[in-house]
Amino acid sequence: MRNPNPNIMPLIKQRTLELLMEKNPEQIGMRDIAQSCGITATSIYHYYKDKDKLFQAISLDCLYELNEKIKAASQKGDSIKAQTQNAISAFRDWCFENPRLSLLVMEGIKSADDASPELIEEYYVCNRTGEELLKKAIAQGMAHSENPRLDVGILVSGLWGCIESVLLKKSDVEYWENNRTFTDRFISLWMDSIFEK
C-alpha cells in the first residue's frame, strides 16, 4: 500500500471547491474532480471514500474558517453582550460575503449524518463557540438561558433561515439588497430574549 501524498489532499479540495463554485454537487463526478486535478479518479478514492465524503471535508474546512472569523469578532467589544453581537454579525456577514459557499455549506452538501459522533460534532464548531459565549454571559449575570446549546442552535438555524430567504430572494423584495436590516431584526429579537436590558 502506498503512502498518502500530503500535497494531493489540499489540491483535491481546492479544485473540488472551484468546481462547486460553478456546479451543484450532484453535477460533479469523481472523474470531473480527477481531471481538474490532473490525476486519476482511482487516486482520489485513495483519499476519499466517495464524493460526498470529499464535499463534507470541504464543508468542514469552511466551517472552521468561519469559526475563526466568529472567534476573532468575539474578541472585539467592551462587554460580553457586544462580543456576542459581533460574533453573530460575523456569521451573518460571512454568509452574505460568500453566498454560493454558504448555501453549499449550510444546505447544498449532503449531511454527514452517517459519520462517527465525534466527526458529526465537528460540524457544530460555530455553534459551540456561540455556546461558550452565551455561558460566559450567563456566568457574568448578563444573560439567561436554561439551555444554552438549544438557544444557540435556534439562533443559528433562525438566522440562517433569514439569510437564506434573502439569498434566494424569498424575502420581501425590499430586503434583497437591504439584507442587514432584515437579519438585524432577527438578531435583535434573539438578543433581547436572552440578554438583560
Describe the fold and architecture.
The protein is 68% helix and 0% strand. With 197 residues, it is mainly α. It is globular, with a radius of gyration of 19 Å. The relative contact order is 0.10.
Could you give a short description of this structure?
This protein is mostly helical and 197 residues long. The chain has ten helices and no strands.
Distance between the termini: 62 Å
**What proportion strand?**
under 5%
| Estimated helix fraction | 55-70%
Number of helices: 10
Shape: globular
SS-based structural class? mainly alpha
Mean pLDDT: 94
Largest sheet: none
From N to C, what is the helix and strand string?
HHHHHHHHHH
**Rg over alpha carbons:** 19 Å
Low-confidence spans = none
How do the helices and strands line up, and which of them pair or pack?
Elements: H1 8-20, H2 30-37, H3 41-45, H4 51-73, H5 80-97, H6 99-108, H7 117-122, H8 125-139, H9 148-167, H10 179-194
Helix pairs in contact: 1-2, 4-5, 4-6, 5-6, 5-8, 5-10, 8-9, 9-10
